[in-house]
Structures are given as structure tokens and as C-alpha cells.
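In this supplementary section we document a worked example of the pipeline. Step one takes a protein sequence of length 308 as its only input; no multiple sequence alignment statistics are reported here. Step two produces a three-dimensional model, which step three serialises into C-alpha cells for compact storage. The input and output of this example are shown verbatim.
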Amino acid sequence: MISERFHPIGTPGTPWGDAEKAEWLAQQSRRRSYLEDVVKAVDALRDRFDVHQYGQLEYHGESFPLYALRSREWRPELPAALVTGGVHGYETSGVHGALQFARDDAADYEGRVNLVVVPAVSPWGYERIHRWNAHAVDPNRSFVPGSPAGESAALMELVASLRGRILVHIDLHETTDTDESEFRPALAARDGKAFEPGTIPDGFYLVGDSEKPQPGFQKAIIDAVAKVTHIAPPDSAGRIIGEVPAQPGVINYPLRKLGLCASVTDAPYVTTTEVYPDSPKATPRQCNDAQVAAVRAALDYALAQEGA
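The serialised model returned by step three reads:
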């Protein structure tokens, strides 16, 4: 039985019910604007991309249109690449790194690959600077049939029409100090489990797919990002977030089993980036630049392997 209180909501050892979730929701406040930060940036790219609204979320009287940027000169004979950001809304450089890539770098790949950029999968979470959606559900554990997260279900529907054509998918994330101070304790409380403290990696790392590891692909990304920001070393136990690295800066997870966004396609080349924005050695600009460097390296490697 769990008796120690480590989170202000709920009873230790008892999963949250509707009352606890309502209490949690009442504590969430809008702290930034999806319209100002993301939608306007997407609108500014309409002269270069086909902007596709692939869904709309409705939460307690608020509406959030979901947008994807697609290559304007879409060529059926070319492979496709998917770039996703903001699956966890609070992970800022995932959103702004995806937008920066679309604005400044996507043109370099015209005629080589069809691009689909989804910069903000979870707009409610973006505005609240939160990991979950308004129902206290983590979208990045919800890429499963009959998904409990509207964010995940909408992206799965978008991607379904492209299955078999996507060559590479890179999902842009961050690991922050608040993972340990806020979100992991909340997760344990929500699920009625004990909170087991961990450590936050000091630097950038990648999460590949243990079911189809691509060590050369992951190394190419790490090498590119190392020119922009530092790569996370293992902790004192030789691990990164509890996993033994497959190579420097890379761990592997069973992505589909865990319902992670990087499993949403059948692409042979997939990875999740993890930027560390709370490092005194990294600026917000470096974090965005690291995401862009990762996207470029992922595309360059995959296209070279395919002779494209």
C-alpha cells in the first residue's frame, strides 16, 4: 500500500477518478497562445506549402484546429517524410524547431522528398505548457487503435493515407527538469502508483525503435546535433532515463508497444529527439537549431541510403 503523499491531488495508492481529474483541470491555466505562436506562423507559410487542416479539437468551449504543412509540389513517385512536433505541448523546441525547419530549410529538399510537417500535435497542451491533454491523457502513449486522445487519433488518421510511402519520421521532443519535478509525480499520482525519483539527462539524446534499430541513422543525427549542442552522457549507473544506451546518445524503446508517436508510420527510419532546454549550456535558439539539425541529418541519411 502506498501511504506517502508526493502529489497534492488524490489519495496515495488510489488512481484518480473524475473528481481528481476535475481538480487537476481546474488548476491548469492558459499561459501562451497557439493562435499567435503557431497558427500565424503556419499561415505565413501558405505561399510555400499546402496547409491542410487535418482535424479539430474541442475542449470545454475551446476549439483548436490541427494543421499539417505539405509539400506544394507533391510528386507521387517520391518518398515522403513526416516531421512532428508538440506531441507533448510543453516541449517548446519541438514546435518551434518544426516551424523553423519548414520556414528555413524545407526548400532544400524540394524535388527529393515529399514533406509533411505537423508542428503542434497538442495545442491545448502547448497553451497550458503541459504534457497531457485536457482529459489528463498523455498523447504520446496513445498512438493505439481506438486512441483515448483526440490529438493522437487525428494524427493517425492523417498518416493512414500515407502508409507504405513514408521513408522517415522524426518526432521532436524535449526532456525537461519539470519531467522530474512535476510530470512524473503527477503520472504516478494519477495512476495510483508510487513515485520513483529519476534523473534528467544533461544534453540531447535520441530514442530509436528496438524492433527495427537503425544505428547508422541514429549516429548520423547525433553527429550532426553535436555540432549545435552537447550530447547527454549516461548517468552514474551507465543509463539514460533508465535504459542502457545502444550507442552514445541513443536508447531504444519498443515504440509501437508503448503507443509512442514515432510508431505511427511504417517508415524504416524513425526516431524521437530529446532536447534538454534547462541546461545552462543551451539557449532556446540552440534548442530549436538542434531540432532542425536533427531533421536535416535524418532526411540526408535516409535519402542517401535510398539513393534519392
